[in-house]
Amino acid sequence: MAIAYDAEKRIFKLDTDHTSYLIGLTEEGYAGHIYYGAKLNHPCGYAALGISDAPVSPSVNARDKLNFMDGFFFEYPTWGTGDLRESALDVRTPDGFRGCELIYDSYSVVPGKKSIPGMPSTFAKRSDVMSDEEALRNIGVYSGKNAGFIAPEQEEKVETLELTLKDDVLGLKVILYYTVFPASDAVVRSAEIINGGSGPLTLEKAYSACIDMPNRNFERIVLEGSWARERRVDRAPVGRGIQGVRSLRGETSHNENNFLALVTPGTDEEKGEVYAMNFVYSGNFRAQAELSQHRSIRMTMGIEPETFSWRLESGESFRTPEAVLVYSDKGTGEMSRRFHDLYRNHLIRSPWLHADRPILVNNWEATYFNFDTEKLAALAKTARDTGIEMLVMDDGWFGVRNSDNCSLGDWYVNEEKLPGGLKPLVDRVNELGLKFGIWFEPEMISGDSDLYRAHPDWALRLPGRTPTQSREQYVLDYSRKEVRDAVYSQISAVLHSANIAYVKWDMNRPLSDLGSAELPPERAGELHHRFVLGVYDLQERLISEFPELLLENCSGGGGRFDPGMLYYSPQIWTSDDTDAIERLWIQEGTSYVYPVSTMGAHVSKAPNEQVGRMTDFMTRGNVALEGTFGYELDLTSMPEEERAMIPEQVRRYHRYHALIAEGDLYRGHSWDAKDPYQVWTVAAKDGSAALLTYVQVLGEANRRPRMVPFRGLLPDARYAVYEVGTPEEIRECGFGAEGSGIAGTAASKASFASNGCSFYGDELMQVGVSLPAMGDFRSRMLIAVRQ
Ligand code: GLA
């Protein structure tokens, strides 16, 4: 049983396979946090710990109630009645008073987990969120080429604790939801706030989760960045006061991710304690830690209050998005693997989740806005000849769009570029044997568009002000159903007009001018959250009407990379920076939370468009293989010797993608000035194989070979190790006739000295393999296969 209640001691114990989370109720009925950490294997005996140790108990010593409130470890702290730290809930009455105090009412433990209407949420079983027929489509759809590396999806016994608290003065009820995912070692929290009183109430803040605990010299890890350099790992000591990250940009943002981890000093990829939170939401958020006067830490996650308020009429309720809590006592590596397992098994719904995704070529960096049917058809033909499987037509196919200054909102084909419309082009591409994909930016409207000329009030705007432009565009008011309907009907018509397999959903500016022509004044503060719900509504409609569609989310690169988006799309464009060396950091940071299978990664041209670097072509491919894999360059004009390597990259994808996408990721080394190389390993969950990628970022003179360890193998099993791309590997690990004909294109010149030799797992993990340094930007891949 994942959740137990000791009625005598009034303690709830939530257990995953490796962690425990304890909640206690005081005599007065306050819900307090006792413990979160490594699993406690004995029944609840913890009454004396924490909960009854508070300096003052209000019922005994009411004159010092504030001391109690301000130091107690609350599960869901409220503002206004004595806790003077950051609150999770702030409620305003019609008279303008703000204050709330939550007392235990009741609890229930329910099997599984309910979904949250209109919002993304984790699920217990696939059949909870899709029909049996749809759920079946998710299983076993890897092509035969990939067989052998994937463990079947496990069903976990998921349970949810519903803990109901109430405030009799306000007539308010709060249900705290805690869903326990035993095998993924995660606890997912959210709150429902119900106005059971007779008048309206306004929520000024409603977070999703809070953990109060003693400080242990924690350091905090966040993923920071900017456009084209998203999610760099940033670590700093937690000092006194409040520190954290937030977004005010109407999306998760390039600048911050909705992830926060607190780690004990000395934590690295393999050791140390980690408390991590991630938010199943795609808009403004606040993730923070407050180090209090008592040296306790309050870690919170929720919707950013600055752009949030929500009016609850009598009888109405508000449900917060979900916060995912992960604890690891094996460092940040184990933390990531827990997030990855949870998201692959309990969040991503797409039928493409376990499938070989078609290898695509996207025309953005190949042509930008300058293309027509003939150019795209030529690209598709070269793509076909090299083994690429899908052509994606990016920005510029609609309205009169020849640059980024017009036509967003006018989702009809520009027949000057595509004579006869979409169908003739798509048919030609399909006849070549390729699938076809297309780009939209559905939340946006250009000032120069038919849509804006007809409906200027459909753009977000503040009364009396001209809305602020970014990339010469405005944001549509997605809180309005008529606006969403109008955009959706255009998109749907386009998707019905031809055989379209893939959509890239982009969003190229943040929100500003948060004003809606429709919302009444008392609900004006709801606009931002209603916008996010509007995006979810449209993405839900899209994947319901086109269930086989492969949807890739995107926001000026990786500005909306979050678990909320993963509920709708199995992959997200990671960054507009396609430079393979910069991508080492970007993909490493992204992999802290998000599975490799979700990271859009393409091979692009050299010199690279963003940084001008000349990176080895095979390395560009090997880095993109740590993601969804595809191309974004002009195949028709690239150097012949590079084009000749594409079939080998295609083979690597088909041979190893299942292992990469479904396996356990181990980040081995992150490059720096002294050790300018990067290593990561992906190991099959059953220990049957592991693929190690080594990238030499800068060449090193007079450097003796490094011993580079594998990870995730079975210590006592024997493995044959091959350098990927050598004739031996292609012969022994290839996939039959289809793969064997391309041995000549193997790029690695110096092969691994012990190519094909066999070792025990413990040798490979503890001694490692000997790899000499190479020149700048060179890389190699080694595969260990169990014998
Ligand atoms: C964003 C995306 C790019 C491309 C352009 C098109 O920047 O991230 O991949 O689609 O928009 O305008």
Structure in words:
The model is unreliable at about 140-150 and about 735-750 (pLDDT under 50). α9 (about 480-495) packs parallel to α10 and α12 (about 580-590) packs parallel to α13 (about 615-625). It is built from 18 helices and 39 strands. The protein is about 20% helix and about 30% strand. By secondary structure, the chain is an alpha+beta fold. Strands 6, 7, 8, 9, 11, 12, 14, 15, 19 and 20 form a ten-stranded antiparallel sheet that branches. A nine-stranded parallel sheet has the order 29-28-27-26-23-22-21-31-30. The site of alpha-D-galactopyranose (GLA) has 12 residues, from loops.
Mean pLDDT: 93
Bound ligand species: alpha-D-galactopyranose
**Strand portion:** 25-35%
Q: Tell me the span between the first and last alpha carbons.
A: 38 Å
> Cα-atom Rg, whole angstroms?
27 Å
Uncertain parts: 139-148, 736-749
Question: Helicity range of the residues?
Answer: 10-25%
Shape: globular
Largest sheet: 10 strands, antiparallel
- Strand elements, count: 39
| Helix-strand category | alpha+beta
Number of helices: 18
Brief write-up:
It is built from 18 helices and 39 strands. With 787 residues, it is of the alpha+beta class. Helix 9 runs parallel beside helix 10 and helix 12 (580-591) packs parallel to helix 13.
What is the topology?
Layout: E1 3-6, E2 11-15, E3 19-25, E4 31-38, H1 65-69, E5 89-92, E6 103-111, H2 126-129, H3 132-137, E7 159-167, E8 172-181, E9 186-195, E10 201-214, E11 219-224, E12 232-237, E13 241-246, E14 259-263, E15 274-280, E16 285-291, E17 296-303, E18 310-312, E19 317-319, E20 322-328, H4 331-346, E21 360-362, H5 364-367, H6 373-386, E22 390-393, H7 422-431, E23 435-440, E24 444-446, H8 450-454, E25 473-475, H9 481-497, E26 502-505, H10 527-545, E27 550-553, H11 563-566, E28 571-573, H12 580-591, E29 599-600, E30 602-604, H13 617-624, E31 630-632, H14 640-643, H15 646-662, E32 664-669, E33 677-683, E34 689-696, E35 706-708, E36 718-723, H16 727-733, H17 737-740, E37 758-760, H18 761-767, E38 769-771, E39 778-786
Parallel strand pairs: 21-22, 21-31, 22-23, 23-26, 26-27, 27-28, 28-29, 30-31
Antiparallel strand pairs: 1-2, 2-3, 3-4, 5-10, 6-7, 7-8, 8-9, 9-19, 9-20, 10-17, 10-18, 11-12, 11-14, 13-16, 14-15, 15-20, 16-17, 24-25, 32-33, 33-34, 34-39, 35-38, 36-37, 36-39
Helix pairs in contact: 9-10, 12-13
Bound molecules: alpha-D-galactopyranose.
